[in-house]
C-alpha cells in the first residue's frame, strides 16, 4: 500500500468504537509482522505471503466463528 501501511489501517479500525469489532486478517510479505499481533490495535490474525488458499479460508472461517 502506497499511502498508508496496513498495520496503521488496522490500528485505526481497532481504535474506533464503530469498527473495533470487525475482524482483521493482515496479509503481508513481511514475515516479522507476526509480532504486531501482540500490540495494541493488532489484527485478529496474520498470513504471510506466499500462502495457499486453504490457509486463507481456514483463517477467515476462524474469524467468522468468533
UniProtKB/TrEMBL annotation:
InterPro entries: CheY-like_superfamily, Sig_transdc_resp-reg_receiver. Gene3D superfamilies: 3.40.50.2300. One of its GO terms (biological process) is phosphorelay signal transduction system. Residues 1-64 form the Response regulatory domain. This is Sigma-B regulation protein RsbU (Phosphoserine phosphatase). The lineage of its organism: Bacteria, Pseudomonadati, Bacteroidota, Sphingobacteriia, Sphingobacteriales.
